Amino acid sequence: MIRGGRRSIALGMTACMAMGSAVLAMASSPAGASPPAVPDTAAAVAGSSWLVSQLTPQGYIPSPTPGQANLAQTANVVLALAATGSAPASAQSALAYMASHIDAYVIVDGADGPGQLALLLLDAVALGENPHSFGGTDLVSRLLATEQDAGADAGAFGTARQFTDQYASTYTQGLALAALAAAGVRGTPQVAASVSWLVGQQCPTSSGTSAGGWTSPEQPTNTCTLDPANYGGPDTNSTALAVEGLAAQGALTAPVSSSALTFLLSAQQSDGGFSYFPSTTSVPATTDSNSTAEVLQAIVALGDSPTSARFTVTGGGNPLTSLLSFQATSGAAAGGFFYQSGGTPDPVSSYEAVPAVMGLAFPYEGASWAVASDGGVFALGTASFFGSMGGKALNAPVVGIAGSSDGGGYWEVASDGGVFAFGDAHFHGSMGGQHLNKPVVGIAATHDGGGYWEVASDGGVFTFGDAHFHGSMGGKALNAPIVGIAATSDGGGYWEVASDGGVFAFGDAIFQGSMGGKHLNKPVVGIAATADGGGYWEVASDGGVFAFGDANPYGSLGAMPPNDPVVGILPAASGTGYLEVTSAGGVFPFGTAYAYGSLAGVPLAAPVVGLASAAGTTT
Prior knowledge:
- This protein is α+β, with helices and mostly antiparallel strands.
- It has helices at residues 41-54, 71-84, 88-99, 102-106, 114-126, 139-144, 160-164, 170-182, 189-200, 236-248, 254-267, 289-301, 319-324, 347-357; strands spanning 107-108, 111-112, 368-372, 377-380, 398-403, 409-414, 419-423, 440-445, 451-456, 461-465, 482-487, 493-498, 503-507, 524-529, 535-540, 545-549, 566-571, 577-582, 587-591, 608-613.
- The model is unreliable at 1-34 (pLDDT under 50).
């Protein structure tokens, strides 16, 4: 099989999760802005439009054989279209075609292909379908069933023959781990074995310039000795997917991350882009759009930005500017991306590039509920609607929302302390009807969904159910009112945040720093904690995000404030991203977080005041 770029790899795929039915609201660079930044919505939508033009009326990308579909390309196009949300009808048409041709696509070398299943699983979740019942099959169970359970390759997805033919590899391993994370499968024994196998495939520090990379299909079939002339050694594509899969599972440890970053930096070309193999003296490499797109997504998964100083080369180029240089800007093919300089747009290069210029790594998480001050609840993406206080008489406006741990329900809280429970979120009591010194401003749920805390603007905390009191700022002098609360993952503590950015920690919540006493352009309006409780993010009304502890910064709206104020922040389940939400219902994703939908442009009876996760997790 010919190698030399992922376009010629047998699987020929990329992956992303995306929106459900609502229109996506993303920040885009103004026309002519310099330098470009992610997300570049205009470029991504143009790429999506070109891809739509390549679909047949039946919803597939045609193969060279007349009347036959290229199923791998069609599956990828679904994800590229979903990444922008600009052509939902075309995305659904292509998804329906794939649902009716599952086995024709999935079965390779006489067995289920893990990469194909992972891609279809991501397709299904991207457009709001149940991956456990897609086209009459359970994609999650079939993917898990491809994992080897014995021998040297225990934990690897795919058969020995599939590894030989490269239908299975370190690349598809990363893709499978990301897909399972998309389906909520994290932390299980099978996942742990798969993570262990993939981490074990990373080239060791003793391998010199190859250290930190991953080979395809695996070691020792392909050793860590870099030999591009014979297609040997680690490559950027396999490394990128390994990084994203591990990040999606929360398994990207500091040593693994640092080594991977070192390898990718060593592979960067002088124009800021990437080739499949790093350049060597004997085999100079040429930047290609596919590899650049892959690495750009991995950079996001690593918690960095493709436009950061780290990835900016002499002359000002970076991975994003390099990737954009492969987009046709005029003529009938305008919007499409081509593989290398002088080429013409093609589906593979285009579906690779679209999610990357949106600044997305995968899985792109974001199934959520938005709540308005009149109690109306809006289910975004695959989130289910369980009822709301919208249209009902309220004694006081709703000020926040919290979701149950399994994604099966939520609580609304009003400024008078009243709590309203829906779905499997049980009512455990409230401050409604009781005397309050100051209005309630937020709510946080315990990790098991058995209780919740209310917090008032004077810092007072009120506990219900199995939520324990660990202290509060109630009755103490404050420089600014409290505006939000976030709990630790074990329920043993919580943080309060004030509008001046001050943070107050109680119980096992550790103070990691704050914006208190520092200059702010706009007041802080919310706080969100990392999954391990080792850090938190503050968000201001202009969209600025401030990270503390092990909370990594993934970008913000601070440099390009939205038309309406930001009112809250919600972390991605993977811990490598977050969503910002505005009072108009606009949802803006950063890192691996993804806005399955948005209320921007939708007439609202009252402003949005909060956002809660609807993603249940299997452990």
